[in-house]
Q: What sequence folds into this?
């Protein structure tokens, strides 16, 4: 039996990490009976197509984010290129690989795969795994067999607005790697809501995603002179130029790192995470019960994540970087607010989402 997970690793690390989490859970639960492959869809279609789309996406969010916001908000259907040209390229791949099930943790190829299911004699099952607390309509199709969503509100929207049968939708949560839950179990319990010892500095973890996007240098500047109050760990991801820039001017209480493979450990150790609200980052901080302060959400999917977090009182967005030190101190000094936040986190954190998804997939393969 073969399961293929379509994802993308150059337009957001979270989609790829979700695919890895599901693959890990499938391998563990199936005891080797299921072959699981992770495929980057755009690269599968053609490396040149991947290059063009990735470059265009990052140019938009960096230079004209309003254009990406307009496209995300107003374009309701996938393009002809996405539906027809992608399906033509993927048909040959499907004929060669013959998977029993395809899961997508990124919506790029959903339209093409759904079209192939409707027009070709393929028998694979198709599942969509949402890795944000919102979704774009071009990831929805009547030919998608299963939807794995992060929250019951997404399930309700799929049912009410898109007439998807509720039996096809499972609100298991965003699949984070089991290492995050193992890290929480193995760590010393945190004080309620992040309460701190008065004799040690506050440990802030500053993230900018895999590409190190956001006002990270400005954040570092706000904490440069607060040596006794704060300790900073800044993870620059794959942004080598940012790493070199910050490393040259970091103060003694500021640690600058590049791409790391033990993010679970860093999130668990931190008192507060300051980051863009990527879907996986949100899910990881909830699993680790580490407070998240949002900065500079990307229009579209990250704006949707921001709305979810603010609606349920799980985080706040800092509009002015100069307010960060004061906001962190006020949050940690307000014991009642921390306890109320802790209660809300208990209600919204979804444990073992990757395993729940894997078990559901295996139940379809081995009924």
A:
């Amino acid at each position: 039996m073969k399961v293929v997970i379509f994802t993308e690793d150059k337009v957001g690390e979270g989609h790829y990490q979700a695919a890895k989490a599901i693959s890990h859970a499938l391998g563990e639960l199936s005891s080797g009976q299921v072959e699981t492959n992770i495929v980057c869809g755009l690269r599968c279609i053609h490396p040149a197509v991947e290059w063009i789309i990735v470059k265009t996406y990052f140019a938009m969010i960096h230079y004209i984010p309003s254009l990406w916001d307009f496209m995300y908000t107003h374009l309701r259907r996938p393009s002809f290129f996405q539906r027809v040209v992608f399906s033509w390229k993927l048909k040959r791949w499907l004929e060669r690989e013959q998977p029993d099930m395809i899961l997508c943790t990124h919506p790029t190829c959903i339209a093409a795969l759904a079209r192939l299911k409707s027009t070709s004699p393929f028998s694979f099952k198709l599942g969509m795994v949402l890795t944000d607390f919102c979704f774009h309509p071009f990831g929805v199709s009547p030919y998608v067999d299963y939807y794995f969503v992060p929250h019951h509100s997404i399930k309700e929207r799929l049912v009410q607005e898109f007439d998807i049968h509720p039996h096809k939708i499972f609100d298991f949560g965003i699949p984070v790697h089991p290492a995050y839950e193992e890290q929480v179990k193995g760590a010393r319990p945190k004080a309620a809501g992040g309460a701190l010892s008065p004799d040690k500095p506050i440990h802030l973890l500053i993230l900018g995603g895999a590409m190190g996007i956001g006002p990270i240098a400005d954040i570092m500047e706000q904490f440069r002179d607060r040596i006794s109050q704060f300790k900073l760990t800044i993870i620059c991801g794959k942004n080598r130029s940012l790493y070199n820039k910050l490393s040259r001017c970091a103060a003694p209480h500021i640690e600058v790192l590049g791409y790391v493979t033990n993010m679970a450990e860093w999130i668990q150790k931190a008192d507060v995470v300051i980051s863009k609200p990527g879907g996986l980052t949100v899910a990881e901080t909830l699993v680790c019960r580490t407070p998240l302060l949002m900065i500079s959400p990307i229009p579209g999917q990250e704006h949707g994540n921001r709305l979810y977090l603010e609606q349920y009182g799980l985080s706040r967005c800092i509009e002015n970087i100069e307010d960060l030190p004061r906001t962190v101190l006020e949050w940690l000094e307000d014991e009642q607010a921390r306890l109320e936040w802790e209660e809300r986190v208990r209600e919204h954190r979804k444990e073992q989402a990757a395993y729940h998804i894997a078990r559901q997939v295996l139940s379809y393969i081995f009924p």
